[in-house]
Amino acid sequence: MQLFDNKEVHQRLATYLVEFVENRDWDVAKAHFSIFSKMVRANQWLLYADLEEKKGGFTKNPEAMWDGLDAVLFLRDEILRTTGRRIWGLTFTLYPDGKYDIEYDYTKPDDYDDSNEAGDGGSDSPVADLLGGLVKRPAAVNPDPFLQQALEALQAQTAQNSRDWGLGTEARWNLEMNEGSLRFTFADGRVLQAPVQVVGTYSTASGSFLWGWDHPSVPQPLRRAAQKVCDYGLAHGMEPLTMRSIACSEDEAWAYTAAAAQLDGAAGAYRGDAGGTWVYMVFGVPVAV
Questions:
Q1: 1 inside domain
Q2: Chain mean pLDDT for the chain
Q3: pLDDT band at 286 (very low <50, low <70, confident <90, very high)
């Protein structure tokens, strides 16, 4: 997708909300977008007769949702290029007569960790740790043979995905949990989409991992892979796999993700930056869209 001016961006955001509303009655529709390095998190809702509705939408034209998220990233980059200021969020308000308002948030979240923003070509890639040889130091990370074997398998799988379709070189990514999909957009215009499972989230501030099988933000259909790890832990007496939240390193979080990939038969794994929180995921075979 290529966007040429802010008018087109605003049109895509309006279409985003129209597709969310679909055939429902509404007095006003709103969407708030939180903007991170390579992804956008969105919340949308409509108001009708003083009642608020947050669910539904995007059944007829799901591409409008992805276009809207891409438009927000474009707008972030364009504002940074022309003004030197970065927006961290925006709220788009649409009315039935076609009028709209847009508000920008220039305040960086207090808990945002920008150490993984692109810039130095180091470990900013969501798969760089695996491609860079994480499993070369297994004893310090996960002495359990199952986790070690799973991590070695995931490293090989990640390297293959990188060679085959460029995992780790994507320009941006988006996780749509209601749809259960993970989308990779590349600088050459390619877009790949895969079914996704959320293994858990890692807080860089607290150094803790919250498993997806009991995560308040993870829908039930996306908990399957994490639940398989929990079940394995219960069957084999591996307590860290059965605790809802556990203090661990990022390397150990990768090992847990590798276990989920193996037990769920995933095609690969991905770690996405959500502003101070890493989202660890496993995904199925990506297809072009």
A1: no
A2: 87
A3: very high
Report long-range pairs for 186-191 (Cβ below 8 Å, ≥24 apart).
Answer: 189/1, 190/166, 190/288, 191/66, 191/288, 191/289
For residues 269 and 134, membership in a common domain is answered with yes
Only one residue has tokens 């996960």, namely: 142
User: Mean pLDDT: which of 51-55, 227-231, 237-241 is highest?
Assistant: 227-231
Please state the rounded mean pLDDT for residues 57-80: 89
Residue 178 pLDDT: 84
pLDDT, tens digit, for every residue of 153-169?
Answer: 999 999 899 999 999 88
Mean pLDDT over 233-252 rounds to 94
Task: State yes or no: pLDDT of 133 exceeds 70.
Answer: no
Distances (CA, A) of 15 to 31, 37, 182: 11, 24, 21
Question: What is the Cβ-side half-sphere exposure of residue 275, based on CA atoms within 13 angstroms?
Answer: 15
Q: Enumerate residues 6+ apart whose C-beta is below 8 A from 139.
A: none
Give dist(CA 94, CA 75) in Å, integer: 17
**Domain count for the chain:** 2
Domain that holds residue 127: 114-288
- Taking alpha carbons only, the member of 36, 51, 185, 167 closest to residue 111 is 36
User: Residue 199: which residues within 8 A CB-CB, separation 6 or more?
Assistant: 211, 212, 225, 226, 229, 256, 257, 260, 269, 280, 281, 282
- 92 and 183 together in one domain: no
pLDDT number for residue 118? 41
SS (H, E, C) 106-162: CCCCCCCCHHHCCCCCCCCCCCHHHHCCHHHCHHHHCCCHHHHHHHHHHHHHHHHHH
